[in-house]
Amino acid sequence: MDYDVLILGGGIIGCAVAYEISKYNLNIAVIEKDYDIADDVSLINTAMVYDGVESEDTLTARLERMGNKMMDTISAKFNVPFKRCGSLIIAQTDEQAEMIDKTYKRAIDRGTKDVQLLESKYIYEMEPNLNVHIKKGLYSKNTGVICPFDLALAYGEVAFDNGVKFKLEEEVIDIQEISKGFKVITNKNKLTCKMVINTTSSENYSIANEKKIDINNYKSILKYILLDNNDKKRFSHALFMFNSKGERIYTLPTIEGDTVAAISTKDNVSYNEAIDRVSKITSGVDNLDVKMFLDWPFFEEPIVIDDSGIDDGIIQIKGKHYGQVTMTPAIASIVCESVVSKMQCKLKKDFNDKRRESYKFRELSDEERKKIIVIDKKYGKIICACEKVTEGEIVDAIRRPLGARTVEGVKRRTGAAFGNCQGSHCLNKIVSILARETNKQMTEIVKDSKDSNIVRCRIKEFDSM
Ligand SMILES: Cc1cc2nc3c(=O)[nH]c(=O)nc-3n(C[C@H](O)[C@H](O)[C@H](O)COP(=O)(O)OP(=O)(O)OC[C@H]3O[C@@H](n4cnc5c(N)ncnc54)[C@H](O)[C@@H]3O)c2cc1C
């Protein structure tokens, strides 16, 4: 057999599973069709870590609670920014207050810790800038925010350092059963293995014939707005409420100190209407505050860890859900237990549970900055002025294990181009560094996927191209 375990899909769940099982004496590969791992994790580098209170589905709630509990240890170990900001579900009408009572009772029945019903006066004290009438609220202490790219990258990097092979730009075409294992056919290879863990959803495989997720089968569209706080006082907790149209609306403080506001709607809401709806609950939003505006289909399909084929050696992660980042550590740990029991494998003696360190120039003191610039002059050259990202950090992001090969990869690893100008001053410099470091022409560098080249052709007047 070429491998003991093949993991199909290098999203956050594929990477987390790879990390967990890389602790054992197994020969593992991850197959990912894109240029980078975890390309679909999120478009904004803050994900909510739910605690199961909001979830109607009991199994989903349990996975969220389990993942939530594991986040402190994992984020600390991998140095991934994670903050428990707490959340408030707010009722503005008697009907909503009744719904909150039911949600509270459900949470208590499920054994959820640190939830509390609050009267309006306490909520105004906690969130003095909240500009709505409040009947009551449900406070959840353990809700948090995390950097999802960083978490996915950390899982991938540590798995890579512990011997997992990442086969990028390789698409799985089929899985076939063979004697004592499987043959996974990709657009580049035919690979044999004893076990398959499928985190992709394709209806074309001969086995694991999973019904493809219908990307049009979502409950509603999330209108996502990333707001620069611009010295405006917004909210310190994640807030969930309904507006007068019955649409779910929520805001959360990002790790970087901005605010995400989102409206879940079935209507075709324009940019101006979305801004207007968000302005009604905050201390006003103007166009200059808006860093990003995007639509995201809101999926609420329960996640199922299907190990009904474990005797044959196949595990499938099915479903698509808005809280998948939260559930990731729990899913990876459950899958790992099944793999260990099926493969009867032993822990590696030389497993290295440490992520390679990197410098974040913007977080260093002047003294620390001087020291690293002496070691490497590239840390003295700012490339992204908005986010204070240096050439040294970009080069490190490219040269690290599972290093960036695309502009999006550099952005996610370093935070460059995520500032107010959204890369208008630094994208060309990032392309140029990527070309130099990967020994390619600038015209060959892509944004994130095949044919997404940023520089179309050489302009002969510019020597640097
Ligand atoms: C805008 C946005 C906001 C979100 N906010 C939150 C949040 O606040 N909290 C939270 O918990 N979650 C959040 N999520 C959800 C979460 O980020 C995603 O659901 C999660 O990243 C899914 O991870 P995954 O590994 O299961 O799937 P995916 O990321 O879809 O991974 C599957 C991988 O398989 C690859 N693949 C597919 N087919 C093949 C094939 N045939 N061969 C090889 N590779 C293949 C894909 O390229 C992909 O990389 C958010 C998502 C988005 C988009």
- Overall body shape: globular
Distance between the termini: 46 Å
Tally the helices: what do you get?
11
Percent of sequence in beta strands: 15-25%
Class inferred from helices and paired strands: alpha+beta
CATH superfamily of the largest domain: FAD/NAD(P)-binding domain
Helical residues, percent: 25-40%
| Major sheet details | 8 strands, mixed
Q: How many domains in all?
A: 3
Ligands present? flavin-adenine dinucleotide
CATH topology of the largest domain: FAD/NAD(P)-binding domain
If you compute it from the alpha carbons, what radius of gyration comes out, rounded to the nearest whole angstrom? Answer: 23 Å
User: How many beta-strand runs?
Assistant: 21
CATH architecture of the largest domain: 3-Layer(bba) Sandwich
Question: Mean pLDDT, nearest integer?
Answer: 91
Would you identify the regions where 5 or more consecutive residues have pLDDT less than 50? none
Classified by CATH, the class of the largest domain is: Alpha Beta
